[in-house]
Specification:
By secondary structure, this protein is an alpha/beta fold. The chain contains 12 helices and 12 strands.
């Protein structure tokens, strides 16, 4: 299958590209000028110049393909702005696929999906609001109503692996700046996690299934206690590991406080059953307890 991949040079997208090519698919990868296109070509993909805010480039890429995987990432510190852009991108791609049976997989997440309990694939995200500005699932649902064969892959908030530039590196940065590795309260709030190569297989398997049966959860570990992460960081940096009150946490973590205190255990049982997916890579704690995370 010839697959158009947005975010093809990104943390998750580059892994998806390699996974698809290794399985015999052809990849047309979206890349901004000067942003990792050489690595994309070296992986065996064809480069499609464009950007998420260039809707014509998205339409063109989708028109040339037999399926689309939308993996483009966003800065969590600019939630609302980035997710509004994401919705426009999804709508542009979907308009091209409408009236065909070409599958579309859209990236979403499990964070804040079901506060207070274990989230499952059956859960529907909260309505778009300032506290939950993610619009990807609503945009995908609207496409499904128009007959587009679309679904979502919900990623764990911790997508780890060497080269990670996501949530754990942010925590390491906070710890270095404050000279302590902190957690909130008892630190037993849980973060789901997945290795990026395991996540890439979820995309490939879901695409080969025709994007039917989703949403799919790319979650290898239902929930890793935040304190366990803080303990690895403190030991590796040789700094104190301390508990912060909610008030103290706001000073330590800044805009990231909401995520630091998040308890979001998430199941991937249905995804594993439907796709025959089994995580194969290291778990989060074993992965981050390595010098590469602290270089």
């Amino acid at each position: 299958m010839r697959v158009f991949v947005t975010g093809a040079t990104g943390w998750v997208g580059s892994a998806v590209v390699k996974e698809l090519i290794a399985a015999g698919h052809q990849v047309l990868g979206l890349a901004r000028p000067g942003t990792g296109a050489e690595a994309l070509a070296a992986a065996g993909a064809e480069i499609h110049r464009g950007a998420l805010d260039d809707l014509d480039s998205l339409r063109s890429g989708a028109a040339q393909s037999e399926g689309v995987i939308h993996t483009a990432n966003h800065d969590f510190s600019e939630f609302a702005q980035n997710y509004a852009e994401d919705r426009r991108a999804i709508e542009a791609i979907g308009a091209v696929l409408e009236g065909s049976d070409r599958p579309l997989l859209v990236t979403s997440g499990v964070a804040l999906l079901a506060p207070g309990r274990t989230a499952t694939e059956e859960d529907v995200p909260p309505f778009n609001s300032p506290s939950y500005p993610r619009q990807s699932e609503a945009a995908t649902a609207a496409l499904v109503e128009r007959g587009v064969r679309a679904s979502t892959v919900r990623l764990a908030p911790l997508i780890h692996g060497h080269g990670d530039h996501g949530w754990v590196p942010r925590l390491i940065q906070f710890a270095r700046e404050k000279s302590v590795s902190a957690y909130i309260g008892d630190g037993l709030n849980r973060w789901p996690a997945v290795h990026r190569l395991d996540a890439a297989r979820v995309y490939r398997l879901a695409l080969e299934r025709g994007a039917t049966g989703g949403p799919f959860h790319a979650v290898a570990e239902d929930g890793v206690p935040f304190k366990a992460i803080a303990e690895v960081i403190g030991r590796r940096l040789n700094i104190p590991i301390v508990s912060k009150s909610p008030e103290e946490a706001a000073e330590h973590f800044g805009w990231f406080t909401m995520f630091a205190g998040m308890d979001a255990p998430t199941s991937s049982e249905r995804t594993r059953s439907l796709l025959g997916w089994r995580p194969e890579l290291l778990g989060l704690i074993a992965e981050i307890d390595h010098p590469a995370y602290f270089d």
